[in-house]
Amino acid sequence: MKLVSRSLSAAGLALAALPVLATAASAHPGHEVVANFSSGLAHPVHGADHVLAMVAVGLLAARFGGRTLVLLPAAFVTAMLAGGLAGVVLGGLPAVEPGILASIVVLGLAAGVGGLVPAGAALAITAVFAVFHGAAHGMEMPASGPAAAYFAGFALATALLHAAGIGLGLLASRLGRLASSAAGLSVAAAGIAMAAGLL
Q1: What is d(CA 52, CA 43) in angstroms, rounded to the nearest whole number?
Q2: pLDDT in tens, 138-194
Q3: Tens digit of pLDDT for each residue in 58-106?
Q4: Sorted alphabetically, which Pfam families does this protein's record hold (predicted)?
Q5: Considering the entire predicted model, what is its pTM?
Q6: 8 Å CB contact between 24 and 133
Q7: Cβ contacts of residue 67 below 8 Å, gap of 6+?
Q8: What is d(CA 75, CA 71) in angstroms, rounded to the nearest whole number?
């Protein structure tokens, strides 16, 4: 119960902080042409596709609970940073946008069906999709400015979105299995709608 309470508090703070952080980043003069912490922080929250996928990771982590609450988001952030480096060094990866859209659907479905996906498989799938998200961040990094600060910014924004997803997932689990499934399936449905051009 204490873990649930703490996670909900952390998620509430994360949700409250995101609009403030995104607004501050957007207000930063020239953030679109300079790579810095603010532009990195703003990048994940400016796209609904990134936001939905990050929340789905949190929802999935909440369905597993235990160590996975930390391991799943950590695997995502680590693989995302590697993907970001590939995006900068290689100029991108193939099928980045389809990979991002697929991540919303697959991670949402995995969160929706709960324990039907083994934790090991969930970690592997999450890490693979994280590479696509990271590549997008890296490809869209402004040409000038400190890359390390930009990377730190989008890593923090991603972690905060994961925390929000975990909080929502834990809240849904308190309402029952049906609510937990509905949360994940709603994200998957939004991903399908985005892929179909409806959102």
Answers
A1: 14
A2: 999 998 889 999 999 999 999 999 999 999 999 999 999 999 999 999 999 999 999
A3: 999 999 999 999 999 999 999 999 999 999 999 888 999 999 999 999 9
A4: HupE_UreJ
A5: 0.83
A6: no
A7: none
A8: 6
Contact 176, 17 (CB under 8 A): no
Count Cβ neighbours within 10 Å for each residue of 97-107 and write b for 16 or more, e otherwise: eebbbbbbbbb
Contact 140, 90 (CB under 8 A): no
Phi, psi of 185 (to 5 degrees): -65, -30
Amino acid at 150: Y
- Listed in sequence order, the residues at least 6 apart from 66 whose beta carbon sits closer than 8 Å to its beta carbon are none
Q: Token pair for residue 57?
A: 């990771």
Helices (H), the chain: 2-27, 37-45, 48-64, 68-89, 96-113, 119-139, 147-175, 177-195
Please check whether residue 23 is in contact with residue 170, taking contact to mean a CB–CB distance below 8 angstroms: no
